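assembly run, all chains below
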Amino acid sequence: MKAEIIAIGSELLTPYRLDTNSLFLTDELNQLGIRVVYKNVVGDSLDDMRTCFGIAVLRADLIVASGGLGPTDDDRTRDAVAEVLSRKLQLNEEVLHKIKERFRRYNRSMPEINARQAMVPQGAAILPNSRGTAPGLWLEHDGHIVVLLPGVPIELQSIFETEVKPRLARLNHDERLFTRDLRITGLPESEVEQRVRPLYELYPDTETTILAAPTGIQLHPRIWSRDTAKAEKLLDEIVDRMALALGENLFSTHGETLEEVVARVLMENHATIAVAESCTGGMLAERLTNVAGSSNYFLGGVVCYSNELKTAFVDVPAAIIESKGAVSSEVALALASGIRRRTGATIGVGITGIAGPTGGTPEKPVGLVHIAIADERGSREHAIRFPGDRERIRLYATQSALDMVRRYFLYPAVGRG
Amino acid sequence: MKAEIIAIGSELLTPYRLDTNSLFLTDELNQLGIRVVYKNVVGDSLDDMRTCFGIAVLRADLIVASGGLGPTDDDRTRDAVAEVLSRKLQLNEEVLHKIKERFRRYNRSMPEINARQAMVPQGAAILPNSRGTAPGLWLEHDGHIVVLLPGVPIELQSIFETEVKPRLARLNHDERLFTRDLRITGLPESEVEQRVRPLYELYPDTETTILAAPTGIQLHPRIWSRDTAKAEKLLDEIVDRMALALGENLFSTHGETLEEVVARVLMENHATIAVAESCTGGMLAERLTNVAGSSNYFLGGVVCYSNELKTAFVDVPAAIIESKGAVSSEVALALASGIRRRTGATIGVGITGIAGPTGGTPEKPVGLVHIAIADERGSREHAIRFPGDRERIRLYATQSALDMVRRYFLYPAVGRG
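ok done. output:
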């Protein structure tokens, strides 16, 4: 079964906005065994919408459209689809009643324009919307299915879950999509690609998507199959081989973020952590605490931008700052051991560097970051030069610090000072 | 002139990836006076691509396609377009030479498959690619223009800037797009919409896009016009009226982030800031320091998750924590004045709250956040309950704190304690 997604709304044709509903819809459809073959964005123009739906009903088995079901003159999806499928639009009393009810519940009377949302193409099934006024609509036409959903994500998702999914599941598709979500850090995308590429030929029925971000590279191997057991076994095998090829750089085989992995590792080791940051300005603490339950392992941190605060908050000797500079191995090490001593944490992390855009010198260029980790026995430090702009340098630096913490616990022989 | 954008690549039909090139292309095209009417995503299938291009040449004046120009078997854009426009594909010796040169520069010889990238549909103009191997292509056909660009954003953008833009500019479009970028905080999207809606009728030739995010609401009024002076004057007038309708909640009329506005306001007042955060875990410091030059006003901060550190780092009296609880007005005020005293900053900000998902009680539910600001004369505090999940509550809390700082300086009669 081939699906086409149509996102409707002139705002989606501006430089400011992307149709993100299609990601949710693709995920759901794939899990039901339905491939998405085309995605379209079209504005509020009735002509353009007619063209779009006219083409879609010729080439796709299932069309899922979002948006254009509101109460205003710009909301023309119902009209366009009625015309393309040669159906009359009729007022549906039951839908009208429900919309009025909804307004009554909020102690308001229904504005006249909302009656438009009760207009339904002949023969359409109504998909109730518990989160808003516009119901979804399900139409069948010459063996094609057309599903119309509101564009508001929470409404679209709730109607899809409760109304569309069960209907589509009943159609009994023979294939389903099986997938994995691997996360890698510390390698460039091209290196990851090169390491796993030999597997593409070994498993020609698997497609693999690679997606790079400063917070890690994602690998998604995918198989369409009729046979659950066989597909899962094959994916397990592929993941095992990928793990072998990626080594310590692979930090999750099931879509965890690096901070979630670090959280798990800290808790498994009954360890606590505290951080002292300069150039990352609080981002390391922010990432450590964006995991629910982080108070179990995160004690606290300081953001010491000025030299005085490095000394006042974590006892970095002023003499070291003076002789080695605020961006130096020695200061990173002093930050890590200082915050550890001040908080009583199992490990302390220190970061100092030059995030830019200014402040670089030939010896200490923009992007240079020192990261240190301290425990009760001592400390160790890395200096890395990251590429990119300020935001990217800060992200890479926190990513690298989190990965040092992960490796410290998982590969102690290498990771400990 | 009507444009259609086609993004090519099977990875863009997965749940993991959106076509973001179209935002750049739309922005550039709009500035050249070209409206984008359709956007499409299609996979690597030759059949599907043929359908897509076949339809596009019937309905758009300009087609800009991205992707599918690589060297592998999956890269079929050249084939599809050659077929649809009934052109032969021919090896272009000059392109081949350039590709070989590029490999030579990196001391490698060209793999045989890359010769594919030198195949060019008859009559196409070559758009040199200084960032990669695949050149862009420009074709004209029955009054329609087809532009093919590589999918790698940096290559696409550089070819567009140097090759496509000047060619399109020469076509002398009569209309251009004029736009503004207003930023609002502290009001829900529906309230912003309601306040500016009366202007839509006053200015029927203006389209306005509204875009909501936890970091502020964006309003983009847009006018297509032949007359620069008239359009700019009209936009100035609209912005003035919107400013009146939005009052203090409008924080920028030209697309600044809230942290940039706060940075400017702090520097204009020769003021410095320091922060003590609990539930936001470093996010407030991170946002204050993601502006270049933040060391001019940001002294430092502490993230004191545990009660002990609230006392150790910023002198919050243990007795207050015990009697009022860590999440209380009193602790927020003590955090703000404590960090101010410890750092010598002009103002101190304190945040304490419950980001969830657990830890809420009937009296202190998840989402409750206390934010305090202290200066040399005293301090003031707000308690707000934010909706949403952990991430959203933390974002809203930092947004609210930044806005308190902005108001403190801009509206001192209201904002100061």
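The radius of gyration of chain B is 28 Å.

Chain B touches chain A through 75 residues (CB under 8 Å).

not gonna interpret more than that til we talk
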